Amino acid sequence: MELEKAVSPLATPVRELMSTDVISVAPSLSLRDALELLAARHIGGVPVVQGHHVVGVLSTSDILSFQASNPVVPGAEPDQPAEEPEPTPEWREGDDPPSAYFADFWADAGGDVLERLEQTGAPEWDLLAEHTVSEAMTRSVVGIGPESPIRSAVRLMTRLDIHRVLVLDAGKLCGVVTSMDVVRAAGRGRI
Question: Are 9 and 154 in contact (CB under 8 A)?
């Protein structure tokens, strides 16, 4: 009687677990639009594709890091000494109020100040609408072949502390395997 070797479930080829309906974004897409896409599709990241080439990966972590490292309101340069302000001229009854200077910047200068402050969708407040995917994406692409064992993908994700590995066949994107794909497969007894 011949003994058969038990095949490890982690030897399953990546192609059997990967998602082939891959959503990708262009590097020129605004970060706001990319974030809305991720939220609408309930996914944590996407490949960034330009033409037929994968040029990076964008994750919600990349967007959060970008947002955190770029303050919405620019501050004074830390290396520059503060300039002495000019003395404020005394205001006299009948003159324009000092606030008139700032009111000229708002199209709705006659509007309620609280209403203006609640409108955070304006370009000066929406940093993500003003910047593109290419500014926040991770440029290093972690890929694996479709015939590679799932064990290799799991080891890559664990070692690099990432949640997705792109599946590339001769340099062409053919799928994505995520940590959730592995968890689902384990939960269903496939691995």
Answer: no
Residue 2 placed within a domain = no
Packing angle of the helix pair 150-160, 179-187 (nearest 10 deg):
130
Q: How far, in Å, CA of 116 to CA of 146, rounded?
A: 53
Q: What is the pLDDT of residues 95-142, one digit of tens each?
A: 776 666 666 665 555 555 556 555 555 555 688 999 999 999 999 999
Tell me how many domains the chain contains.
1
CA distance 134 to 55: 9
Render pLDDT for 65-106 as a digit per residue (tens, 0 to 9).
Answer: 999 888 765 444 555 666 777 776 777 777 776 666 666 665
Largest Cα separation within the chain, whole Å, is 108
Question: Among residues 119, 159, 118, 167, which one has the least CA distance to residue 141?
Answer: 167
Q: Are strands 143-144 and 53-59 parallel, antiparallel or unpaired?
A: unpaired
**CATH classification at residue 23:** 3.10.580.10
**18-45: b or e for each residue (b if 16 or more CB lie within 10 Å)?**
beeeeebbeeebbbbebbeebeeeebeb
Residue with tokens 């070797």: 5
